[in-house]
């Protein structure tokens, strides 16, 4: 049951340039009923605190913190740094997800499940789908995430910092981490209607 999961916070990385979408914000893409941003926030609705890292004009609910990586467009590692700095210190775990995965809710369930009996020496878990590791589909012990990302992370690889942690892979069903990165993938998933620019 969801209420038996350890307390966690969530960071939604939503600040990329969306170059292959002609600059259309991925977060704004809708399937007719909800945007990718709303879908991502819904996937982590049970989090004690949710933080979105992206432009200051993103429409987020009142109970969601909005912050920005410094400098803007400096990459997902910098976004994680901004996110963890905005989080309360008390949550044991922090879920980190990218905003562009329509089926992310399925991954969240799998990640939360493994935290229930996580060995003390394991500092986090990341999803693997189609033999591809997905560091932006992960859940990490907050204190460890804060430790390795509390530095200059601008324009650097997320993996460079996560490799300092003792992590375990979580196998996910094929397609769960498929992202919307081009108009072709946007049309394929149905998230192809921008709600803002």
Automatic annotation (TrEMBL):
One MF annotation (Gene Ontology) recorded for this entry: nucleotidyltransferase activity
UniProt cross-references to Gene3D superfamilies, sorted A to Z: Spore Coat Polysaccharide Biosynthesis Protein SpsA, Chain A
Keywords from the named record: Transferase
Top-rank taxon, per record: Bacteria
Record domain MobA-like NTP transferase: where: 10-165
Pfam families recorded: NTP_transf_3 (PF12804)
InterPro entries per the UniProt record, alphabetical: MobA-like_NTP_Trfase, Nucleotide-diphossugar_trans
PANTHER family: MOLYBDENUM COFACTOR GUANYLYLTRANSFERASE (PTHR19136)
Protein name per Swiss-Prot or TrEMBL: NTP transferase domain-containing protein
Species of provenance: Rothia amarae
């Amino acid at each position: 049951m969801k209420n038996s999961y350890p307390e966690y916070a969530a960071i939604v990385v939503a600040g990329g340039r969306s170059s292959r979408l002609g600059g259309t914000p991925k977060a704004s893409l809708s399937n007719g009923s909800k945007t990718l941003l709303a879908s991502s926030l819904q996937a982590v609705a049970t989090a004690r605190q949710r933080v979105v890292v992206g432009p200051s004009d993103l429409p987020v609910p009142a109970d969601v913190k909005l912050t920005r990586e410094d400098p803007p467009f400096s990459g997902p590692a910098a976004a994680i740094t901004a996110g963890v700095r905005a989080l309360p210190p008390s949550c044991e775990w922090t879920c980190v997800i990218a905003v562009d995965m329509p089926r992310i809710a399925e991954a969240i369930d799998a990640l939360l499940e493994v935290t229930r009996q996580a060995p003390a020496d394991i500092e986090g878990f990341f999803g693997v789908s189609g033999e591809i590791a997905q560091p932006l589909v992960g859940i990490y012990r907050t204190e460890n995430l804060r430790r390795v990302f509390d530095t200059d992370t601008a324009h650097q690889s997320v993996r460079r910092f996560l490799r300092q942690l003792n992590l375990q892979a979580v196998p996910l069903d094929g397609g769960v981490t498929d992202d919307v990165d081009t108009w072709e993938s946007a049309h394929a998933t149905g998230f192809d209607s921008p709600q803002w620019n």
